[in-house]
Amino acid sequence: MASDDKAGPDPRAAGISDLITGLAFLTRIPGMPPQWGSAPLPGQVAKAAWTFPVIGAGIGIAGGIALLIAIAIGLNSLVAGLLAILVVVTLTGAVNEAGLAATAEAGAGDTPPGRIARLAGPLGARGVLAIVFAVSLSAAALGGLAVPYETDGLFVLIAAEAVSFGAMVRPWRALAPATQDPATAGLSVPDERGTTTAIAIGALIAAILTAIAVGVWPMIVALAGAAAATFALEAWCRRRLGGYTRETLGAVQQVTAVTYLLLALAFA
After folding, report:
1. Cα gap 250→59, rounded to integer Å
2. How many CA atoms lie within 13 A of 248 on its CB side?
């Protein structure tokens, strides 16, 4: 009889460990110990990449609950949408919004590509506007989706967060680290299985919830648009920067989420 010492690792324990690593990497939850949010070992983050859409869905649930509460107490749908995005931003520490801003700053032809590695100094107009438009469009789309049925906004927000957090893994796997970013260069790369799993989980969550909320056709269009946005930004990173940085991964999440919300609303 084989001894317990020779038994393989417990899949449940490994999954929980990956989930904790993903949470520490992607979130900045208020009230957690100071070590929470500190960078886990690079290999641990890459191994936990499959959890990204699950964590994104959890973040979407929290934002969606805020949306429902805000509407229930009589706030209009736009204010409710803004409060939902506020909860999302609070849970993530605005890391992805900061990445979007840095990417926008590096997007102009007169900006040295290396600047995106770690945006120094005061945020420029392009970065500020990128954040303003991302937050405003997301909140407005959520407000529109929540009328007349508030749960539609909840479901589509969960879907958008799940698919966009899963999309972050695609350029991480497909591109080399940008040479201008030594911190990114130190990150391990998710394997093919982890990448495929992350994308599949995000797409599955999004497909089910969006189809329930607004129908099959809006779900198909929103998923196609999210995929197009991801590939477009990935191609831009390859051409402009020669690879990805942590900031561009955050930008992928933001652009994909906003695209998903807008298309779901437009075709609902």
Report:
1. 15
2. 35
